[in-house]
What we know:
Helix content: 25-40%
Number of strands: 10
Radius of gyration: 25 Å
Structural class: alpha+beta
Amino acid sequence: MKEDHMKNGQLKPGYNVQMATENQFILFYSLHQRPTDTRCFIPHMERLAASSLPLPKTVIADAGYGSEENYLYALGEEKEPPFDFLIPYGSYMHEQTKRYKTNIKHASNWTYEELDDRFICPNDRYVLFKKYQTKKTPSGLEQSFKIYECEDCSECPLKPSCTKAKGNRQVHWNTIWEELKTKAKTALEDDEKSAIYARRKIEVESVFGHIKGNRSFRRFSLRGLEKVHTEFGIVALAHNLLKVAGIRLTNFLKNKTKKRLGARKDYILVPNRFVLGTYWTASSNSKWRS
Length: 290
């Protein structure tokens, strides 16, 4: 698209490409005219569900997809969720820092008494439940908040570090969102699952790197979702074919080297540090990165 008002030579994105990969092969993609990844997650998964491909058992994505609406969709309305997910929320990394954990303005660092449904602030004053409040997100999701208010913030020496409000400190607590965050955090801190999530960067990010950097595909030549969808499909097909060619060439050279040096007892063949497989169709137990 034309330059924006910044006039810095950067183009404004007209289409948001969402990709699902496995072993750096593109298994599924969708295009959207929405600026944020957060609002592309559900339409992307809906199109996948409507296709002939099976849903994966695990969906892995970065923090740009971590929202209450997306978590609720991933859990589903049935007893068994349609797929497991490893998706951090936006503040996940920040919450792991010492600075966050020692900051008294965050109510999550306070003591909570479930029986009386109240918080205790760092100055040992009660923060009591007052009322419920609902808000709607831009996508239409209705969120429910519990409003708590400190019994008395007057003459509190910690108030300047706790709140900028002129009156008593209030806490807007979204119970559902906090429970979903806890679930996501528990999954990401599991040793086995964290190792799986760590592969996300070398999965989908390297695919985008090859397409945009090595093959210089940074701009669509056509206009309209249907035409652009076809154009990127050709790009994805070329990427997968090049991956297959690269794997076969690597295996051919490795086998040739083995035959040539097989008689030498002092030779040790060092294996590649990556394992790739050709996926003509998605397997039902695949872990997809988005």
